[in-house]
Write a structure and sequence with these properties.
Length: about 475
């Protein structure tokens, strides 16, 4: 199997920096999984009074979402963007990681660095704003953490765009990697432009749920392009590792990614001339995500599914190929499931939660798979035992059950962002709660098993432990 050129060289300072981004991403995933465990307990049983009441539930949601959707995803993007070997602007890369790492620490510790009024008090305002995309904790340390983390990601993104744009035309083996990484970086810059535009137009308004939801609305929807591009890029790496040869040439893949980027690239022509409080602004970004954020998916996704269906009965895979195929196919399945559920959303029920757990889980599954491919590149052993074979089934299967449970509850209009304190009144609702609890527990077990396998690999080292 021919190794893509972008991954062929992982030694030296740049490789050490890429490894640091991986460790930061794993730390965020671990912390977010711990908070997710608490949320599953609070949704399945009325135990919120044992853990600080409803205030703790809101804090757990905010930290879980920020660590899982923001820090884990963008830190892994930092890993992927740090893989190309290039000696230019190394100081920018190191500075970006330092800012992001300090920012992550402040986000995680922000509730406990706040004043005592944060957890109680008759005169305090609500300490948590459960706005879409980025829930907010009203503490100076949380805002400082967001600013530091965002500044670090911005620095790395600018360096990535400069390096990938200025290189000579890529070879056939490089195209999926370089093009996907570049369009993802451009998507992030567009998302930040939408954030700055919203912040400027909303200056002077009272910060609350409506303010923060509007502030992050455009940015959050444009970030879906970034996550989709990086997921597809990882799929293109996983496919040959999984024994699937994709008949997609370099020019076609370049067109696929560029075509997928065009709607986001043209979006400033619309959102820069509309006030964020205008209903057209909200509708535009909703439609942009619903109908345009996945345009790069069909050709790549259908080709992977077709190649698998054609050869599944005759393929004789070794253990390593079988494991990578599990990650790839579960990621594809969860992404399609998330899109289908998203098409049925009506109102602000846990159906929304089911939708984004499908798409978020798809990206996470792809990142889990490629992590085990990258570990040997950094000088660590790749775990290939029975537990590794089981891990994608635990995470992917558990997440599927959780999504189905949330979907069932969403059909009954169960609201999201609230603990499940009322007893289920119908068999359907009871089944949804059961699937939610079982699926969440199994999925989290898969997440913790992934982290444990990576820890064992890092601890064991290899013939060349330091890249």
């Amino acid at each position: 199997m021919e190794e893509p050129e972008l991954l062929a060289h992982t030694r030296g300072k740049q490789a050490r920096l890429a490894l640091r981004w991986l460790l930061l991403a794993l730390a965020a995933l671990l912390a977010s999984s711990l908070f997710a465990l608490l949320l599953i307990v609070l949704r399945s049983m009325d135990l919120s009074h044992w853990l600080g009441g409803s205030a703790f539930f809101a804090v757990a949601i905010a930290l879980h979402v920020n660590l899982a959707v923001l820090v884990w995803f963008l830190s892994f993007a930092g890993l992927l963007w740090s893989l190309p070997e290039d000696d230019r602007w190394q100081a920018v890369s190191h500075g970006a990681w330092i800012l992001a790492a300090f920012g992550t620490g402040l986000i995680l510790l922000s509730p406990w660095l706040a004043t005592p009024d944060f957890w109680g008090g008759a005169t305090r305002t609500d300490p948590v704003v459960l706005s879409n995309y980025l829930p907010i904790l009203r503490t100076p340390s949380f805002f400082a953490g967001l600013a530091l983390f965002g500044g670090g990601i911005l620095l790395l993104t600018l360096r990535t765009c400069a390096i990938l744009w200025s290189k000579t035309p890529p070879t056939a083996g490089e195209v999926p990697n370089r093009t996907g990484l570049l369009v993802a970086a451009i998507s992030l810059l567009l998302a930040l432009l939408a954030l700055l535009h919203a912040a400027w137009n909303l200056r002077g308004e009272q910060p609350g749920v409506a303010y923060y939801e509007t502030l992050f609305w455009g940015m959050g929807h444009l970030l879906q392009f970034l996550h989709t591009f990086l997921m597809l890029t990882v799929w293109l790496w996983l496919a040959p590792l999984a024994g699937l040869k994709l008949p997609l040439n370099a020019r076609l893949l370049r067109l696929v990614f560029v075509n997928g980027l065009l709607p986001a690239l043209l979006s400033p022509l619309f959102f820069l001339v509309i006030h964020p409080n205008n209903s057209a602004y909200r509708l535009y970004f909703t439609q942009l995500m619903s109908y345009a954020s996945w345009l790069a998916f069909p050709i790549i996704g259908i080709t992977i599914a077709w190649q698998w269906l054609r050869h599944a009965a005759t393929d004789q895979l070794d253990r390593e190929q079988g494991i990578f195929r599990s990650y790839l196919l579960f990621s594809l399945f969860l992404f399609v499931l998330g899109i289908l559920i998203g098409s049925r959303i009506e109102g602000d029920s846990v159906m929304v939660t089911a939708h984004y757990h499908g798409t978020v889980g798809a990206v996470t599954m792809a990142y889990m798979g490629i992590t085990f491919h990258l570990l040997p590149r950094f000088g660590f052993r790749r775990p290939l035992g029975r537990w590794h074979q089981l891990q994608p089934y635990l995470y992917g299967g558990g997440l599927t059950l959780l999504i189905l449970g949330l979907t069932g509850l969403g059909l009954y209009g169960v609201p999201r962002k609230t603990p499940l304190t009322a007893q289920a009144t119908t068999l359907w609702e009871s089944g949804g709660v059961a699937l939610l609890g079982i699926g969440g527990a199994v999925g989290l077990l898969g997440s913790f098993l992934f982290l444990w396998l990576v820890f064992l690999s890092l601890r064991a080292g290899g013939d060349n432990r330091r890249p």
